[in-house]
Amino acid sequence: MNIVFCDIDGTFQDLAGEVPQVNYDAITALQKQGDHFVFISGRGYEQLNELMNELDSECDVIFSNGGGYKLVGQPVQYNHCLSIEESEKAIAILEARNIFYHIHTNKGIILKSVDHYESNILALRQKLEPMGKAGQQIMDFKESFFKEQCQHVEDPYHYLVEHPELKVMKIELMEASDEEHVLLRELLASESVDVFSSFTQCLEIVNSKSSKGNAINEFMKDFPDARSYGIGDGENDLPMLEVVDIPVAVGNAKESVKEKCQRIIGDCLDGGVGKFIFEEIIK
């Protein structure tokens, strides 16, 4: 049996872009021959509904970089979340440094009003200017998403305290300054908390057990004889690539990711994932 673990953003799908049809076709072909396709993403489960609805059949999903999972036919499980104490410490640091952050919970994303971060967003737009139209599209999408699809609260930490039923999957930040990224990693990381980069100018703060590598090791306990593939593009994919049998990078992946992989395939936009599956795994 083959099990393909695949990142979403930057790997299976370009940010807010159309998914190449060959990727969907490859999932169907894998499942028909008895193999597994597992989405493994930094997104929260509630952010995956649109993508899941496009599939011909249900897939296993590991979300929030291993903070939880949803197996076919079973309820959603949240197993590696940030505690309220860990969240309080991280939020205090981010507030003191006026960092643009948002909190992923099991019920959606919360953050202060986007108007509060006008200067941060302007700095990010300037940082991404060398990317041309792509950088503008990224920021347009991000700003629209934060304004229209997230919940705005006056005080995120006190909101969490007042709603103990919420589970904090991760705290994500966007920051224009590379120097600030280095400092924030030092300030935020601890024995129980990991910090890593994801996508463009983002850092994610998660439970130390919330990693794609740990999640895959737990998943594979039920399939000890299966061959595992991991396909990714970013730093948060490195723990996955370290534990699978065959690590694979899409052509648009970071160089640090490509260096860890046995195979480099086509770009995300060109359906590299689906083409690789058809060429290498489908019988």
From TrEMBL:
The keyword rRNA-binding does not apply. Keywords: Hydrolase. Gene3D superfamilies: 3.30.1240.10, HAD superfamily/HAD-like. One of its GO terms (cellular component) is cytosol. GO terms for molecular function: magnesium ion binding; phosphatase activity. It holds the Pfam family Hydrolase_3. This is Cof-like hydrolase. It comes from Enterococcus moraviensis ATCC BAA-383.
